[in-house]
Design a protein that fits this description.
6 helices; 85% helix; 194 residues
């Protein structure tokens, strides 16, 4: 008498179960990381909108330029900013991929919307804010810069409203992520084994 393998082993059940278990284990932490990173970025941009830029606007042009140059140098040199700035999109895209793979469209759709909004933040940052920051840095010492009032006015007239756009896009992304998180929670409760 020979022992026959069980049908679920023959059908590849174990391999499929292992993949689903891995997806189950990473889905929640990935989504949590996406929410956390997006919240941090939205908070950073919002802080500039409501405190940093209005505070700088009360300074003379030399002080404004010097302070903004320092802020940019600090943020560019930060060991946290770059990784969080990029991990925000990576975690959101990875969360969407896992949700699609697990056939949880109700979770995946808001994740795609969140990723699209945050991708727009990246594009705006690279296309507008970073070049403006580089131009401001290229001035060198604001005390000896030529045409400083015109340069600062041009900087403010673009950088400030564009930062408000980045804030709005981050808030939209965060809202979509919160929707995905609620839907994920509901789906997890309904799919939990008894």
């Amino acid at each position: 008498m020979s022992i026959q393998p069980r049908p679920f082993v023959q059908a590849g059940w174990f391999d499929q179960h292992s993949r689903n278990s891995l997806a189950d284990r990473v889905a929640g932490p990935l989504l949590g990381a996406a929410v956390l990173c997006t919240g941090l970025m939205a908070g950073l941009f919002f802080a500039y909108d409501i405190s940093v830029m209005p505070g700088l606007a009360q300074l003379d042009d030399r002080a404004y330029a010097a302070a903004m140059q320092r802020f940019n140098a600090v943020i560019d040199g930060s060991a946290l900013f770059g990784p969080v700035f990029l991990a925000t999109l990576a975690c959101t895209v990875a969360s969407a991929a896992v949700a699609f793979r697990r056939k949880r469209r109700a979770v995946a759709v808001p994740l795609v919307a969140a990723a699209a909004c945050y991708l727009a933040v990246l594009v705006v940052t690279v296309a507008v804010n970073l070049p403006l920051n580089a131009e401001l840095a290229a001035l060198g010492d604001p005390a000896t810069a030529k045409d400083l009032p015109a340069v600062i006015e041009d900087f403010k007239s673009v950088w400030v409203p564009v930062n408000a756009v980045r804030t709005g896009l981050c808030v939209l992304s965060l809202g979509a992520l919160c929707s995905a998180l609620v839907r994920y929670g509901r789906a997890t409760v309904h799919h939990r084994p008894a």
